[in-house]
Amino acid sequence: MYNTHKKQIINAMLILSCHVMFSQFKTTIALDKNVTTGKLKNGLTYYILHNEEPKDRASFYFVQNVGAILEEDNQNGLAHFLEHMAFNGTEHFKGKGIIKMLEKNGVSFGKDINAYTAQDETVYNISGVPVNNEKLIDSTLWVLHDWSGSLSLNNEEIDAERGVITEEWRTRRTSGFRLKNQTDQILYKGSKYSKRDVIGDLNIINNFKYPELRNYYKKWYRPDLQAVIIVGDIDVKAMEERVKTIFSNIPLVKKATPRKYYDIPKHDELYFGTASDKEAVNTQITLQYVLDEPMVKDSALTRKNVMNSFYTSILNSRLKELLLKNQKSSLNLKAYFEPISRLNTSFNLSATAQKDRLLESFEEVYTEAERLKRYGAVPAELDRIKKDFISSYDDFLKNKDKVDSDSWADKLTGYFLKAKPFLSPEDDYNLVVGIIKKLSLEELNNYLKTIQQNTNQVVLVTGSDKEKNEFPTKQAVIDVMKKVETMPLAPYKKEVNNDPLIQKELKPVKIKENFNVPELADAKGYILENGAKIIILPTNYSPDQVLFTAFGKGGKSLVKQEDLASAEIATTLARSSGLSNFDSTALKEKLTGKVAKVSPYITENTQGFQGSSNGQDLETMLQLLYLSFEAPRFDVNIYDILKTQYKNRLENLKEDNDNAFNDTVALANSNHNPRTFIFNEKFLENINLQKAEKIYRDRIRNAANFTFVFVGNIPESALGLIQKYIGNIPSDLTATSSFTDHNLEPAEGKTVVHFQRKMQTPKSTAYLHLTGKMEYSEENAIGMYIIGELLSKRFLQTIREEEGGSYGVSVKGSLQVIPKPRYDLTLSFDCNPEKQQKLMQIVYKELGDLKSKPVIASDLEDIKKAILKNREESIKTNSYWGSIIYNISINAIPNMQDADYKNLISKINQKTIQQLSKHVLDSSSSVEVIMDPKQ
């Protein structure tokens, strides 16, 4: 939330005729004095910051100020290829040595070890590293050292990775990706960005000569373009000495090639382009104003960033209000800033239209932007947005010590790459809140007139293939813009609802009974006069956070089959309609400056709420909860919008291959049970506003059937407020509620569904699900998780690395209690259709090996260490204890003390996993679904 208020957009910079720059970004705002920084003689920059969230952990980032934009045409894809190769052998870590070394210490590939490549940078991270292991810290630093200039880049490893990246290329060829590739030719016209999609040209990936990759690596991976960022619970001075010792010996490159920065050529003419795709779901039009990113980041820029955030917040509030009042043309309207290159940002006006209403929808968003530009914001809007922003900054400052190390490392990455100011929380607060308090309506409104200019405009239209003949022309769009700019418009009028949230007087009810929570000595339980069960667990994990949950049994399992479609939309309608006599817009305004939220849910077997607040606004959160029981709203306009959105989505959903696959999986997993949720025309026919409201009021009504849980820094007034608001929720002490088991599970034995679909990018998608009866125990639950993790490791080795057959196999093992104890083992992956059969053979072989052979001991130990490491980190969060209380209360799963948990993990061995695997594989029913491309 805090970072969303800091979007960087501003004015002119010197652009060379070839649209290339060599200058570095700068900031006049001093770096937080708590950050230790320096530059070694070889040019490498380092930043080190002490931070204790999480405790006893550190995050290590290696930032490379080079990405795909530096590739030549015959190198398209090599920057991303190098990122992959960083995990395939270095000077000090042969083969998969980096991953093996880290995972032996509980640092997991994917979760803690990752990287990304973009057009302008490549960033690697190793997060959550235990700091009490000096050898591990040194080894981690040597990993970063080797990434700098000591990758092995062996021929065999390069060839093996070609297949992996080919499958990543295949997996990422979604409808959205294909549309972006088309629109980038317009947005980036005349710029190198139009030719760089990061993953690259498949022909180059599969055929480049080995020296080409090594030459690119030598040219661009060098210390003057690199930064080492270390944030965590560390001795900063000692860490600095280690950095100097390990990284100073990296040689300085002589006659280094200058790092160029590419911008987007200026243009007076409005650029216009369309893009279509068979699987596109929505029809959308976006007007983009391409802006320059300033070279110098100073306090004046921060002031502009604040005004930009105010601008989009005010305009989006108006657009949402318009949508609620008028459903004639638009499904969604929004305004936003986004970075589009290292040197450019764009301000965007976007409209998602109803069928055959694209121009009308565009006129709506452009009209509201013109109204705001012409007349400015009104005082009430500025007052509201100021309160909201200051409140969010207040909340941030109170909880500054709970900002995790990865968040700070990410901000330091921005400081190195783009000179985004990095201040201490206190200085940041003083700067931004100082600007907000002094900002006048006149200054804001004058600034709003400067954002939309008549140059560097781009209009992009996207939609499905079958709608492309109906796309508007460039002239038609220009005519709408001219029409709006010259038409008379009335100033915006703001109506404010000053009623209190709750108008009737409530008095606290008595506590009928106290109870203890098993295995949680610090938790206090209360039963109120109305039968509501309350559990309060005070903690000091976050200085000013209260997490709230409420839950009861029943859910959609108690809804008649013919009403299930309405049950699916019940809480969506309630969340979107407001509360009591406040519609959604009025409620948002009423909650200005408050840090409090409550959201209802109805799942298959349960119903309840999730919420949060700070200590000061706990009462507001409880008021929202009370009204969610007593006075929910079901706005007919919201219902009409939702139904129209569903209808428009269904227009193109038949072409969506992912949707077809997911529906097939859902039906196979339920043995075609008629209660299976499928989003189709029948669903649309069956949804009903009155039924949705009735289902909500039936499931969310009786306080006696709910347990209300509060975890966090609970204020002393909490119990009295709970007695006042939850205590006055109506109840029926004689009524009980539980769930009904409708046997939403696969047929016994083996279910196999293979089918074909037409595809633009041929790929096979495979899914396998094993399930069966298993009594719940903590050992069984952990064992199922371990089986999933073991298979993930094996498939990483066999399917991804050895076969180059898939970008990755997703595997999950779990054990559920509701509606009945069952185990589930699921896996899925995309792959080359030509390899699908062979890869499925590997899948079944690996499953068979689980029960016929002992698992690899080192793999099991790595997973056990990761489990203990994750628990160490989790137990220091409020959300963890909220889930523990949920499991105690609704699943009857006791909390294990730390010593008991560690003892349980220590007893899990090759034999216990083999025995559990045998039970799973011998007793399971299975579902195999494979979608292949139609020839």
Write the layout of secondary structure elements.
Elements: E1 20-21, E2 26-27, E3 36-39, E4 45-50, E5 57-64, H1 78-85, H2 97-103, E6 113-117, E7 122-130, H3 134-149, H4 155-171, H5 175-187, H6 202-207, H7 210-220, E8 226-232, H8 236-247, E9 261-262, E10 271-277, E11 284-292, E12 296-297, H9 299-325, E13 330-339, E14 344-353, H10 358-375, H11 379-398, H12 405-418, H13 425-438, H14 441-448, E15 457-464, H15 474-486, E16 511-517, E17 520-528, E18 533-538, E19 546-553, H16 564-577, H17 584-590, E20 596-602, E21 606-613, H18 618-630, H19 636-653, H20 657-669, H21 681-686, H22 689-699, E22 707-712, H23 718-725, E23 750-757, E24 764-773, H24 778-802, E25 810-816, E26 822-831, H25 836-852, H26 857-874, H27 878-890, H28 898-907, H29 910-923, E27 925-933
Parallel strand pairs: 2-12, 4-8, 10-15, 18-22, 23-27
Antiparallel strand pairs: 1-9, 3-4, 5-7, 5-8, 6-7, 11-14, 11-15, 13-14, 16-17, 17-18, 19-21, 19-22, 20-21, 24-26, 24-27, 25-26
Helix pairs in contact: 3-8, 9-13, 10-15, 11-13, 16-22, 18-23, 24-25, 24-26, 24-29, 25-29
Structural overview:
- The protein is α+β, with helices and mostly antiparallel strands.
- It is 42% helix and 20% strand.
- It contains 29 helices and 27 strands.
- A seven-stranded mixed β-sheet has the order 16-17-18-22-19-21-20, with helices on both faces. Strands 3-4-8-5-7-6 form a six-stranded mixed β-sheet, sandwiched between helices. A five-stranded mixed β-sheet has the order 10-15-11-14-13, sandwiched between helices.
